[in-house]
Amino acid sequence: MQFIFVLPGWEGSASDSRVLRDAITRPNGLKVPNGYYYLVDGGYTNGEGFLAPYRGTRNHLSEWRDGHTPSNHEEYFNMKHASARNVIERCFGLIKARWGIIRSPSFYPIKTQCQIITACCLLHNLIRREMSIDPIEHEINELEDGENMVEGDMLGTIGPSDQWIAKRNDMALQMNNEWRTNRHH
């Protein structure tokens, strides 16, 4: 529930892939350790370092409420992917709840708006690290907190890859098989 990279300033109409490409090619940009990945939504390509849900398959948590269960490995993967991505959405909800200045349109110059967003993210992270219980989050609902620092080589490019598609498929099949096995015990 902390921000690891913030890139304010892009127009809302910019494509996700264009913003991502900019983020990872900057000198101090987003770093993706080799062998690791970030979860991304369906607007992104499933490629090395960026794990996207299956397209054309249910991928919203609301679709599995009311007792519906996934019917195959792709749906199961998308359900788990959506659950993990929900943490990201909750983090944005928390920062908006905490900082009223970013909830409404701003009339500051763009440079100042970018600095305000960055400052709000930094203060959010400081609060997350220093307070054992975040009162704002407690009001919204409690979440588990996880943190992993990784050293080593980082990815420097993005793009679709057959190898990464196969990796996602293998992961989805394994997750689905474990779920089905545990469900019957």
Would you write up a description of this structure?
With 185 residues, the chain is mainly alpha-helical. 46% of the residues lie in helices and 4% in strands. It has helices at 16-25, 73-98, 110-130, 135-140, 162-183; strands spanning 32-33, 38-39, 50-51, 154-155. Helix 2 crosses helix 5 (162-183). The longest helix has 26 residues, at 73-98. Mean pLDDT is 80; it is low at 142-153.
Helix and strand topology:
Layout lengths: L15 H10 L6 E2 L4 E2 L10 E2 L21 H26 L11 H21 L4 H6 L13 E2 L6 H22 L2
Helix pairs in contact: 2-5
Spell out the key features of this protein.
metal-binding; 185 residues; nuclease activity; nuclease; 5 helices; globular; single chain; mainly alpha; 4 strands
Task: Briefly summarize what is shown.
With 185 residues, this protein is mainly alpha-helical. 46% of the residues lie in helices and 4% in strands.
State the shape. Answer: globular
Largest sheet: 2 strands, antiparallel
Q: How far is the first residue's CA from the last residue's CA?
A: 33 Å
Please estimate the helix content: 40-55%
Query: What is the H-and-E element order?
Result: HEEEHHHEH
Q: Which percent range describes the beta-strand content?
A: under 5%
Given helix and strand content, the structural type is mainly alpha
Model regions low in confidence, pLDDT < 50 over at least 5 residues: 142-153
Task: Round the mean pLDDT to the nearest integer and report it.
Answer: 80
Give the strand tally: 4
Query: How much is the radius of gyration in Å?
Result: 18 Å
Strand order of the biggest β-sheet:
1-4
Count up the helices.
Answer: 5
Protein name: DDE Tnp4 domain-containing protein
Family: Belongs to the HARBI1 family.
Subcellular location: Nucleus
InterPro entries: HARBI1-like (IPR045249), HARBI1_dom (IPR027806)
